[in-house]
Amino acid sequence: MAWFRSFIQVSKIKSSVRPTKPTHFFTPLSHFSSAAGPAEAAVRERWGLAPTGPDDKPRVVVLGSGWAGCRLMKGLDTKAYDVVCVSPRNHMVFTPLLASTCVGTLEFRSVAEPIGRIQPAISSAPGSYFFLAKCTGVDPDNHMVHCETVTDGSNSLEPWKFKIAYDKLVVALGAEASTFGIHGVTDNAIFLREVHHAQEIRRKLLLNLMLSDVPGISEEEKRRLLHCVVVGGGPTGVEFSGELSDFIMKDVRQRYAHVKDYIHVTLIEANEILSSFDDRLRQYATKQLTKSGVRLVRGVVKDVKSHKIILSDGSEVPYGLLVWSTGVGPSPFVRSLQLPKSPGGRIGVDEWLRVPSVQDIFAIGDCSGFLESTGKPVLPALAQVAERQGKYLAELLNGVAKAGGGQANSSKEIALGDPFVYRHLGSMATIGRFKALVDLRQSKEAKGLSLAGFTSWIIWRSAYLTRVVSWRNRFYVAVNWFTTFVSGRDISRI
Prior knowledge:
This is NADH:ubiquinone reductase (non-electrogenic). By secondary structure, this protein is an alpha/beta fold. It has helices at residues 2-15, 38-42, 67-75, 98-101, 115-118, 121-124, 185-188, 195-211, 219-225, 235-255, 279-291, 332-336, 383-402, 454-467, 471-487; strands spanning 48-49, 59-63, 82-87, 91-93, 112-114, 129-139, 144-149, 161-165, 168-171, 176-177, 190-191, 227-231, 264-269, 294-298, 301-304, 308-311, 316-318, 321-324, 328-329, 347-349, 361-363, 368-370, 427-432, 435-439, 450-453.
């Protein structure tokens, strides 16, 4: 059993690699003497992270693991700060390539980047942590956030509530899909914002293909099962429609020959598709999508039932798969926070991305917007906006720490430098069949370069390949693209 004793010794050594600071953790209230003050006792109701001491590194708490929060954590100086991330997911989603995973062009792991790879200190530094939890409340007066662990369904452990003290708090909770109050959307449609959404779309699509080939299925039911409806003509909806049409033309027609004439795609948009793009590019996209077999319908959805959509003109659209991609808005939790709001219900920030009415709270990404008093418009909910805000705020907080303002309530007199300025770098979207759109104008009214076709497709793929966070995932994406080109998409698994 010598090998077993060696294994125990190695395990003990590994367990001591990451020491903890006991003074940083709350203990149950019963463990404290009655001499503790009411404020001190109140924050010790649950286990959690206690306020940092004057000799400790200040703590930055980041709520969310999207583009903004992850870019912030990547840029923070972990020699100056401890970093604590609270999020219901332990990875960042590379959303521009998410539509490709729905039809097997890419595998799901290619677009999911673990938080620990983005900021290694979270996995190794003594005072830095990731908590799989959601924030349930913010107490600005006591510099405290209330959290609740994320559990897996009703049969798992009860959620555990705890508190975390912060020196600096960054709210980067993103946004949620907008349903515009339309009945039935939440119950019947699939959104396309997370990896599990893409997994559900892929599962449903392949299941419907197989069910439609079963003997005895009526012609009407077969057409319904194989009717894929996308609501929303923005970049995500158009890219998914393009990927789906590619999948149908290159893979379904070969591997599901018995039902190849029944499957089709409908894209419903209330106005014009890709409204932020150049007019010439929109016309080109419309032409190419139509040529690929995508039916474009201009209409407003009034109601969504289990097997059909009802439009405002009274017409009905049966479907087997419904993907909802109509934009985003603030989550109910963001709306509930007792913080100033910008137009549209986002958390209001000033030119330095601070929430001006409270100390040491910042907001970035889709959950934030400039206050009307700044005279700046609310920025669009784009990945490049969130990423640039995260990078800017990381540099700002690093500068604050160097100036001695990292601790709570210690940065009031510190100059923050230049305010945040956003310059749009352009927009891109793929439309299938080795074609894409590249619009490099800084705004819809400005003049600039706009391209369409195969060259744009090369630019689109090259740009996103370089933007993938890690070399590991860049390798996965490149290999997936090559494999798909050579042998087609992987459609054998549900």
